[in-house]
Specification:
Distance between the termini: 57 Å
Largest sheet: 9 strands, mixed
Strand content: 15-25%
Number of strands: 20
Oligomer: single chain
Bound molecules: pyridoxal-5'-phosphate
Radius of gyration: 24 Å
Helix content: 25-40%
C-alpha cells in the first residue's frame, strides 16, 4: 500500500510559462544581474487574454471597448501591450494617467475611475479623457471646472446600490439618480454625458445582471430627460482561474477544516482560521480564500453575461439589447487580462524548526510582495532545486518572509513541496500578476521591492528584459 499523497493546491500554469519554467536554467538565467526575488511578467499571455475577451465581445455585442484596469499591476510591459493592441485603459491616479500617456495612449482612449479629489479633477478636466465620476460632488465639480475652463468634458456616471448588492463605498447610489439627471441636464453644455457605469468585485452572475438592468433603466431615464447616453460600462471583476484541479482544492480545504478541529496533521500557522468559525466542534463559514477555487474563466463569465436574458427587457439577451440600443459596452478588466501572465521568484535562505515542531522555509521575500491585501494565496508554489536531489518526498512547510514581523508568513497554511527545500533553492509563486505583486508591497526594513522583468518567447527561445524596456510588436 502506498501512503496517501499529502493535500495539495496544484496551480494552473499557462503553457508558455510552463515551457519557460521547464527550460533548463531559464529561471536562474532570468535572475542574473538582478538576483532574487523578482517578478516576471509575460506580456504575450496578457495579449492572449485580451484576444479571448475580444472574441467573446465580437460574437456577443455589436460595439464595445475594453479598458485595461492599470491598477492590477504597475508593469509597463502590460500597459504597452494594451496600447499596441489598440484597446483603452482605465487609470485611477495621476501616476497611472502619466504611465498611460507615456505608453502612447491618447486621451480619447483613457478612462479615469475611482474617487478623485479637487487636484486630480483639475488635472483631468479639459484633457479629453473620460471621467467616470464616483459621486455627486465629483459630477458637480466637473461641471463647474469645465465651465471655468470653457471645455466640454466626457463623463460616465458610476452607479451602485443595486437591489441585493452589498453596500459599496464607490459609485452614486441609484436612489440619487434624480439628482444626477438634474445636474447632467443643467450642465449639458459642459458635461458630455456618455453613459452609466458599474463595477462589482463579485463572481455572482445574478448580481451583475441586476446591475446591468439597473443601468439600462437609468439609461432609459436619461433618454427621457433628453440626454443621449451611448455607453454602458460593466466594469471589471471577471474572475481568474488559479487551480489546476478543483477536486484537489476541495480535498485540501477538507483536510484544513479537519486540522482546525485538531484532527490529523496541523496545517495552520499561528492559530489562523482563514475566516472559518470554529464552534461546537464544527467548522462554519466561507473561507477568505474562496476565489482561488474558481473554475469559470473570465471569457465564459463575460459570454454568459452577454447572453443573459434580462427580465426587464422581455427576456432579451443583454448583448442584443445593447446592440439594438446602439449602446457601446465598455469593460474594465484587470485581473482577467493578467491572469497567468506573471510569476514571482524567491530564494530559500534557510530552514528552521519552531517550538511547536513546524518547519519554516525562510525566503528572501516578504508576504506583502506576493499577497494582495494580506489575503491567503491558495496556490502551491513550485520548487526549483539548486542542486539535483536524490532524496525526494513531499515535505510540509510554512513559507516565512524576511521581515522582523511575527505575521510575515508568506503562507499561513501548510504547503507540501515535492522535496525538502534547501538554502539556495528557488521558489516560484504562480499567477501573481493580478494585485499580488504591487497592491500591498511596502519597503519595510528598507528592503527594495523586487524588480520586474518581462519574459517573451521568441523563435529561438525565451528573451528576458527589464519590464520598463519591453516594446511589444504592434497589434491590430
Ligand atoms: C472601477 C474599477 N474598474 C475595474 C477594476 C478592475 O477589476 P478586476 O481586476 O477585478 O477586473 C477595479 C478594481 O478595483 C475597479 O475599481
Amino acid at each position: 500500500m502506498t501512503a496517501a499523497a499529502p493535500p495539495g493546491l496544484p496551480a494552473k500554469i499557462h503553457p508558455l510559462v510552463r515551457a519557460f519554467l521547464d527550460a533548463p536554467g531559464a529561471v536562474e538565467d532570468a535572475l542574473k544581474g538582478g538576483s532574487s526575488p523578482a517578478h516576471l511578467v509575460f506580456p504575450q499571455v496578457f495579449a492572449e487574454n485580451l484576444e479571448r475577451l475580444r472574441t467573446v465581445l465580437e460574437a456577443g455585442v455589436g460595439r464595445y471597448r475594453i479598458c485595461y484596469a492599470h491598477k492590477v499591476n504597475q508593469s509597463r510591459a502590460f500597459v504597452r501591450t494594451a496600447e499596441a493592441a489598440g484597446v483603452g485603459i482605465d487609470v485611477a491616479s495621476p501616476e497611472e494617467l502619466a504611465s498611460a500617456g507615456g505608453a502612447g495612449f491618447a486621451p480619447e482612449r483613457i478612462e479615469v475611475t475611482g474617487p478623485k479629489g479637487e487636484g486630480f479633477l483639475r488635472e483631468l478636466v479639459g484633457t479629453g479623457v473620460t471621467i467616470s465620476v464616483d459621486n455627486v460632488w465629483e459630477l458637480r465639480r466637473v461641471g463647474e471646472l469645465a465651465a471655468e475652463f470653457g471645455v466640454v468634458t466626457p463623463v460616465l456616471v458610476r452607479l451602485s446600490g443595486f437591489p441585493g448588492t452589498p453596500v459599496s463605498r464607490f459609485g452614486v447610489p441609484v436612489r440619487q439618480l434624480d439628482e444626477v439627471l438634474e445636474v447632467l441636464v443643467a450642465d449639458r453644455a459642459r458635461i458630455g454625458f456618455r453613459g452609466f457605469a458599474f463595477h462589482l468585485d463579485s463572481g455572482e452572475p445574478a448580481e451583475r445582471v441586476r446591475a446591468v438592468e439597473a443601468c439600462l433603466a437609468a439609461t432609459e431615464r436619461a433618454y427621457e430627460h433628453g440626454l443621449a447616453p451611448s455607453v454602458l460600462n460593466i466594469g471589471g471583476g471577471f474572475r481568474q482561474v488559479f487551480t489546476a484541479d478543483a477536486d484537489a482544492f476541495d480535498h485540501y480545504v477538507i483536510a484544513l477544516r479537519e486540522a482546525l478541529l485538531g484532527r490529523g496533521e496541523a496545517m495552520a500557522w499561528g492559530g489562523n482560521t482563514f475566516g472559518f468559525h470554529l464552534d461546537g466542534g464544527a467548522v462554519h463559514g466561507t473561507p477568505v480564500f474562496h476565489k482561488y477555487a474558481n473554475t469559470v474563466p473570465a471569457d465564459r463569465m463575460l459570454a454568459e453575461l452577454l447572453a443573459a436574458g434580462l427580465e426587464s427587457q422581455g427576456g432579451r439577451e443583454f448583448g442584443q439589447v445593447a446592440a439594438e440600443n446602439l449602446l457601446e459596452v465598455w469593460l474594465e478588466p484587470g485581473k482577467a487580462l493578467v491572469d497567468h501572465a506573471g510569476i514571482t521568484v524567491a530564494r530559500v535562505e534557510f530552514l528552521k524548526e519552531t517550538a511547536d515542531g513546524s518547519l519554516l522555509a525562510n525566503l528572501d521575500l516578504s508576504r506583502d510582495t506576493v499577497t494582495p491585501a494580506d489575503q491567503e494565496v491558495m496556490v502551491d508554489p513550485l520548487l526549483i532545486p539548486a542542486r539535483p536531489r536524490t532524496e525526494t518526498g513531499a515535505t510540509g512547510v510554512f513559507l516565512a518572509g524576511r521581515l522582523c514581523l511575527e505575521r510575515d508568513l508568506i503562507t499561513n497554511h501548510k504547503v507540501w513541496l515535492p522535496a525538502r527545500p534547501e538554502p539556495g533553492d528557488l521558489i516560484v509563486f504562480p499567477n501573481t500578476a493580478a494585485y499580488h505583486m504591487d497592491l500591498s508591497a511596502a519597503t519595510a526594513s528598507m528592503h527594495r521591492l523586487p524588480p520586474k522583468l518581462a519574459v517573451t518567447r521568441e523563435r529561438d527561445g525565451f528573451r528576458v528584459c527589464r519590464d520598463g524596456d519591453y516594446q511589444p510588436e504592434r497589434g491590430r
